[in-house]
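thought: user wants a sequence for this fold. calling inverse folding tool.
action: design(structure=
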């Protein structure tokens, strides 16, 4: 269970505080006596059913969300939509429109902050990535020297998280990568991340599309001694199931479907990159 102190550190930001209060207008107007006369309560919309539907969606998302940030963000979205629906059903169409406009402005002006919890992911530049590929990454030089000092050749593994700041999926997925980094970082297994908005040359090098409709983001690539040794989402040439489909059109559809809905769970990362076996030679 996540400690309260950690949640406070991760969630005590203007984005979450302001969005919380932004979810309340309808409930205040509906239940505070001095505001009730602003609504035509004789309309009697099916409030209970709507509350139950929204509540059920929030509960379902609690089980499916990868992090507290993701669940709270989704819950806020549902509650803000509830405000719009209820204002409209009570005959306040103008209020609903103005609220929707304000919600859109808030989304642009105050975006959700990135994951702030515990992590062992190292922020990398394109030069850092070049050094890793050529076993020259100076920040880990002491660790590498200590292993070489034992007279043994130890493979170096890097799991690199390629992301963009505009991708919501990347933002959510970082929590899962961070959890994996906390559990599996060792003296020869490291986790890094690189912002492709800053280093578009890296995106080109690793054939990662940066278009709004890209199926390549987020991407995780395993480097073994600087060479690519695995990737998520998988490419067609790495997917054994695709090789069994002879019809090219069906293969393209299957590949698109797999890349669109690939498993972003921690279990998927562990199994794909065999993290349980990437231990240094004793």
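)
observation: tool returned 282 residues.
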């Amino acid at each position: 269970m996540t400690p309260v102190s950690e949640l406070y550190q991760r969630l005590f930001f203007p984005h979450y505080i302001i969005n919380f209060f932004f979810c309340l207008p309808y409930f205040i107007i509906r239940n505070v006596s001095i505001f009730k006369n602003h609504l035509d309560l004789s309309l009697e919309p099916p409030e209970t059913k709507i509350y139950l539907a929204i509540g059920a969606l929030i509960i379902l998302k609690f089980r499916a969300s990868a992090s507290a940030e993701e669940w709270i963000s989704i819950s806020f979205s549902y509650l803000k939509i509830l405000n719009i629906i209820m204002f409209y059903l009570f005959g306040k169409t103008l209020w609903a429109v103005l609220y929707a406009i304000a919600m859109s402005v808030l989304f642009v002006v105050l975006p959700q902050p990135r994951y702030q919890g515990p992590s062992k992911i190292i922020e990398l530049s394109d030069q850092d990535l070049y050094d890793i590929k050529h076993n020259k990454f100076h920040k880990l030089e002491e660790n590498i020297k200590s292993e070489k000092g034992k007279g043994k050749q130890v493979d170096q593994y890097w799991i690199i998280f390629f992301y963009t700041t505009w991708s919501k999926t990347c933002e959510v997925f970082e929590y899962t990568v961070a959890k994996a980094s906390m559990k599996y970082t060792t003296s020869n297994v490291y986790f890094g991340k690189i912002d492709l908005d800053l280093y578009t040359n890296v995106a080109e090098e690793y054939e990662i599309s940066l278009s709004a409709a890209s199926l390549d983001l987020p991407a995780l690539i395993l480097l073994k001694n600087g060479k690519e040794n695995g990737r998520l989402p998988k490419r067609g040439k790495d997917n054994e199931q695709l090789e069994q489909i002879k019809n090219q059109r069906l293969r393209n559809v299957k590949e698109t479907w797999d890349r669109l809905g690939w498993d972003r769970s921690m279990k998927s990362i562990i199994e794909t990159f065999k993290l349980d076996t990437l231990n240094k030679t004793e």
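thought: summarizing for user.
answer: Here is the designed sequence. Residues 9 and 107 are 22 Å apart (CA to CA).
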